């Protein structure tokens, strides 16, 4: 097992038991679960209803405490607040403020991460365009359909550009256009170095995007492995070629019979329903057919596509930032004033303090004439005396 410091999520004998009011064991939601989720991985968590998927995700987030076992996220306890800013979460239900519009919703979540105003506005614009809600950004979220709420929920999960993205049934109620774009986004995030944990009942979506999957049943792990490893059927060989006539197929059967094999199935490959649906919608959009709902999303937000700084480049930047800055060479300093010059300056100050300024020499009425403050001659005479004594000693 890889060290916890090198893994994003590590669980060991993770168990969660729910109890009733009298502390009697009611149900074991998760039992002795061992998992390890690596960086740059899309990990699928599968299982029927009540198998412990949501409970596992909540323990990873620190929302539930395990009954026994241990869990580490980025090498720390999941309750450590220092890792919260690195996590994005889309729950199974869209818990949003219905009286806020889409822009206000994303701005609110951006404030939770202490993002500057300019950064919040920039990311809000990019995310709304990405999820296809730019044209309805000023409608209240409570007026959105379920699929549109899932879109804005996905946007809020990405507002902080998280290193770990946890998605619980993300495409529930989402149309095939949003589902296709969601899957493209997941693959882009993984290539950029993000880690994604995906829990979904839509197995076709999981098959398209996940690198590894874990299947739970009764709170226990029943299967774990890579997607190709889990789905490959080692006992069969599939060949795809151009359409063959009956005579060619008969010759192939004879060849296989000579080797002790049998031609099990001959059929024409079918296109995916998703591909057909997207093709029809694209044609309608090209014909500019009006719609009042969500539209096809734009490109993936720029801050989600930017490559992170890694390795030697990151270390070089840190070293450069830590080096002390060399101050500019100062110019030649003027020579210090001699005691005689200092005494002369003080005498001039005494004379100026006793004589009126040119503006005050103009005739004024008795009421308008301000009372001039008497100069503190004692202090000035003391300074002059100190300068004269210094000259005598030198």
Describe, in plain words, how this protein is organized in 3D.
Helices cover 39% and strands 16% of the residues. The protein has helices at 53-61, 102-112, 117-130, 146-158, 176-192, 203-209, 227-231, 246-258, 273-286, 302-305, 311-322, 339-354, 377-393, and strands at 9-19, 25-37, 42-46, 68-73, 87-90, 164-168, 195-199, 212-217, 220-226. A six-stranded mixed β-sheet has the order 5-6-7-3-8-9, with helices on both faces. Strands 2-1-4 form a three-stranded antiparallel β-sheet, covered by helices on one side. Helix 2 (102-112) packs across helix 3 and helix 12 (339-354) packs antiparallel against helix 13 (377-393). The chain is globular and about 125 Å long. Residues 1-5 and 357-370 have low confidence and may be disordered.
